[in-house]
Amino acid sequence: MTLEDLSREIILDHYQNPRNHGRLESPTLANRGHNPLCGDEIELSLSIADDSIRDIAFTGRGCSISQASASMMTETVKGHRLEQAEAVVQQFTRKMANREPPPTELSEELDALQGVKKYPARVKCALLPWTTLRETVDLYRQREPTPGDGEDVVDCADAP
Ligand code: ZN
Questions:
Q1: Distance 120 CA to ligand 1 centre (A)
Q2: Which of 4, 74, 114, 151 is the right S-S partner for 20, CB 3.0 to 4.6 Å?
Q3: In angstroms, what is the span from residue 51 Cα to ligand 1's centroid?
Q4: Residue 69 pLDDT > 90
Q5: Is residue 24 predicted with pLDDT exceeding 90?
């Protein structure tokens, strides 16, 4: 099995058996992302407490790359502190943009998405869930000027 076959198999597995798929019942925050180039849509719901991502789920539609990437992303950041999650988003984004040598912290699974770089138009598909997560964390920070102080649950205007 070549590396390319392995990558394809990992992506296909996440696409067909997405992890953390669905919507959280009472998320702290929900947010949508859209990639107009390909028509991909991602909706994230996050449960955040003590500055950690306690739970995360996604729904969406679009190409296999975007949906598999969302599945991998949720698996990667679930349980992470917000700043850890932001750091992984940044590493992944940089790696997809080829701006720095592969950091060792990323998992083998996430490396499967590196093959997408051969198709520049698809890089945006792979990045969509990650940029959506970053925007969601930004939203959370804007709504929580004093993290850890008081309210855990924030109403979300974007929630369905
Ligand atoms: Zn796509």
A1: 11
A2: 74
A3: 31
A4: yes
A5: yes
Predicted structure pTM score: 0.84
Rounded distance from Cα 149 to ligand 1 centre (Å): 39
Q: What is the mean predicted confidence (pLDDT) over 85-103? A: 82
Beta bridge partners, 58, equal 21, 44
pLDDT tens for each residue of 71-87: 999 999 999 999 999 99
Contacts 24+ apart (CB under 8 A), 150-159: 152/28, 152/48, 152/49, 153/26, 153/28, 154/28, 154/29, 156/27, 156/28, 156/29, 156/30, 156/31, 158/30, 158/31, 158/32, 159/27, 159/30, 159/45
Provide the 3-class DSSP secondary structure of residue 20: coil
- Alpha carbon of 27 to ligand 1 centroid (Å): 26
